[in-house]
């Protein structure tokens, strides 16, 4: 029995509220159970120097956790004068995951920055950030298409979900209680067409078999399919 009472293949409840900020070109508040992330998209008619002149667009991301998003207050990284290694790793993951669903030629030479701020954490914050980040990206691109700035839709859905081995069983969408005790956990990032973008798997106190990994992959594909449906419904 999972701590939440969910079946092995059950996702947490998912809700995506769009248009939650006034100024961003795209925004949403995604809730995956008790993990809540605010995602915003900013459009700019410029690209980094290494892209300039290529005709290609660029999508990048920043990630952060608010001081009381967890059980005890975390110090703001700005007061420490630098980002932690975990933060840098996660925002790079978000950026490259979202870029995998973008036709950068069709986007044109412009940059979209996705900001993901964790309001409340209960496991799976990077997965929620990627899933919500794509919604914010979708909304920003919709504005480009509406104004005629671009004529071809450059986006393919991208979503992410965690899976792991908890109490010897493969489970979908780990919350913190499961993630903190799972012998094996992983993050699965896929496009809406089923193509894999990235899989992060690690054994933490237990090993796993090829058969178990295949079962986790099956769970992840089913979970991402549900998330894509939620993304598309939110963007209508």
UniProtKB/TrEMBL annotation:
Phosphate binds at residues 86, 124-126. The lineage of its organism: Bacteria, Pseudomonadati, Pseudomonadota, Alphaproteobacteria, Rhodobacterales. It comes from the Bacteria. Homohexameric ring arranged as a trimer of dimers. It catalyses: tRNA(n+1) + phosphate = tRNA(n) + a ribonucleoside 5'-diphosphate. The keyword rRNA processing applies. The gene is rph. Keywords: Nucleotidyltransferase, RNA-binding, rRNA processing, Transferase, tRNA processing, tRNA-binding. PROSITE patterns: RIBONUCLEASE_PH. Belongs to the RNase PH family. Its EC number is 2.7.7.56. This is Ribonuclease PH. Residues 11-140, 156-222 form the Exoribonuclease phosphorolytic domain.
